[in-house]
Structure formats: C-alpha cells, structure tokens
Amino acid sequence: MVASTGNSLFAVEWLLLIFLIVCAVFVSCARDLLNAVVIFMSYSLIMAVIWVLLQAPDLAITEAAVGAGVTSLLFFLALRRVDRIGHSQEKKEEHHD
Amino acid sequence: MIEKLTSLFKGFRDWVEGNGPRPENEGMPPEAPPPLPFTLKPPTAHSARFHELTIRERRRLWLESYGGDLFSSLYVGIGILACVLFVFVLLAAVAELPPFGDPGNPANNEVVQRYVERGGRETGAQNIVAGMILDYRAFDTFGESVVLFTAAVCVLMLLSTVADDSSSRTAPCRFVQNSGLTALKPVQNSGLTALKPVQNSGLTALKPVQRDDAILRGVASLSIPIILLLGCAVVVEGHLSPGGGFSGGAILSAGLILCANAYGFDRVHRVFSERTFVRSSSGALLAYAVMKGWSFFSGANHIESGIPTGKVGNILSGGLILPLNICVGLVVAGTLYSFYALFSEGEI
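Output (structure tokens, whole complex):
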C-alpha cells in the first residue's frame, strides 16, 4: 500500500496512517468547531508528510499550502463570522471599557 | 468512554432519523422524540380476550403495538449493516488493486513511457509533472484556473460592497448581526444590481477588532518575507523543482493573509488593491488563454510553441512553462487572498 524502503520508515508510515485515521474520526466527533478545524489542519499536515513519503512532492507542497494553510484560514474566518470564536474575549473587553 | 460512545450513537441515530442537529450543541431544550404512530398498549396475555385470538391475529396486534419500534430499530440496524458492507466492498476493491510501483500496472502504458522518455527533451522541463500539466495537458490547467477565477468573480459579486457609482464606497462590512445569527442581507437598489451595505442603527457591524498584537507582529515581520520569497521561488522554479503555479500562488496568498492579519488590510491594500487583483487575474488568464489557445490554431499538440526549450535545468528553459506558471500563480494568489479579504472585510 505504501512505498517503503526501510523498516524504520515503514513504521513511521504506519504510525502516520494510524494518526491520519484517528484525526479523520476525531474531526467528525469534535464538539468544538475550533478543535475540529485544528484537527483538520493536522490531518492535512500528516497527509502532506505521507505525500512526501509516497514520492509526490508536488502534491505535498499543494496539500501543505492549501489544505493546512488557506482552507483552515477560511474555516477560522467562517467560525469568527458565526461567532464561534473570539466572541467571549471581545465581550470581556467591552466590559472592561 | 462508554458514555461518549452512547452519546455518539445517539447523535448518529438522530442524524439517521432526521431529528435535526444535536440539541446539546445548539443550546436548545432537548427535543422530545416524535410519538410513534402505533401507541396502542399490547394486550396482555392475562386479558380474557387474548386467549380467544388466533395466532395470526395475535401477530397482527403485536405488529400494531410494537411495529414502530421494530421498524426504527430495523432501519438503524440495516443502515449500519449497509455501511459496514460498503466499507468491506471498498476494502476488498483496494485489496484487488495492483501493487504500488509495479512496472506491470495497467497505468504504466505508452503514455507514461512517452512522458518519461521524451518529456524532458520535448518540454524542456526538469520537473516532469510541470511538463505534463503545463505542456502536454496545459488546457486542463487552463480550465482549473478559469474555475478559480469564476469562483472569485462570484464571491466578488456576492460580497463586494462597491456600489455602482464608485465614489460611494461605504462601510466595508455589511454583515448584520441578527439575534446571534449573522445574516447576509443584500438590498436591491432600485433597478441597480449593486449591493448596498445595510446599516441598522442599533446593530454593530461585525468588524474584526484590530488589536496591537506584539507577538503576532514580531513573528509576522520575520516570516512574511520568507513566505513571500518561498512562494515566488516555488512559482518561478516550477519547471525545475516540485511546486508550480498553484502551490506557489497558495503560499503567496497565505503570506498576504498573514500580513493583512498582522498589520491590517490597509497595509496590503497599498500593494494589492482590488484594481491590482482584477488586472493581474484577468490579465494572467488572458495571457494564458493566448499562449495556449494559440497552439490550437497552429495545429500543434500543445508542445511546439516556437520558443526554444533551452538547456534542461536552467531557469530560462521549458519554453512556455515559466510564463504559464507565473500566470497560474498570479490567478491563484489573487483569488485566495481576495476570498479571505472579501469574507473578512467585505472588500479587497
């Protein structure tokens, strides 16, 4: 399933794959949407490493830039729009003023 | 753990049965499950009439009283069974796939052979992926860029606050806070299709608070030049090393977004305004269309551009790949950054 050259690399690949599945499950299980986005980011990062191990550096760069970077940024922005993050802190500051 | 599993199962069952979102998540009072259509009490075995019934009538009565529960549990059970079966079918299909990297795989046909053997000579690109997507299959990449550009145009039309007369550029945020929900309220403006910002008196516009964050600024001042330089390198060296227009453009846009968050959108606006976005994106797309559409009329199979391919490995090699990469990078960087700016501020 996964290209492997050495035993240690093989173990790392399995570790990454298991972690990938754990991340994928916990993204859908996370109650807090902010946590879900962060876990999704780590999922993309692991996927990028796996792309490198599969000798697809082009995909790795794109996955890291788009999956872990821009997509998560847009998710954070959407969460801020619907007041899921940054709301309570701003309220506190208003009370201070 | 068990509680979590049961709550997970309950959520799954709610979702399967269409009871809406998890009540706990929304902070709403828990919704009572709808009463089943069959709420008859089953006749007990002790009642006098029960003994007079035949077996068939007893079965009918039992179904009438317990049928709803039976149906719902059967429904859930069959749903889970179907999912598990589907997973097994997919896993079996994966197990039947040819091994990774086997030379006898059906994907290793004459097309791959041609790309590998003659790609470097024909396209002049050291990175054979760039040679494929920007020379052999450049028209597909053109379609991808057009899709991104169209998405950006649609977002611009929906979220932009620029009125028809460009002088009346008003408040950047037209999201109106509406009892906890952020509603989008486009207002039709007497025949004009322009969307005017809605300004309700008692409601505060949702402008993100611009805070003087020393840590963010310090990190940003160190990392933004590196990020932008890396993005430019990935775009320009697309035909030599992994990367290319799309990934480089995404890196560039990430740098711009970081800059906008650390120093405010005005700072980015000086370099990358809406006018720059429109001109660079449409200009890059047009240049791409001219460069690659021309090869259709010339009858070439997307390869012979007339430009010498140069020495493989030099920065000025690969014929049209370098300008095409720059075009794609411009479109992608502008589009992704404008998505962020439009969603965040309402304008680029």
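Chain B touches chain A through 30 residues (CB under 8 Å).
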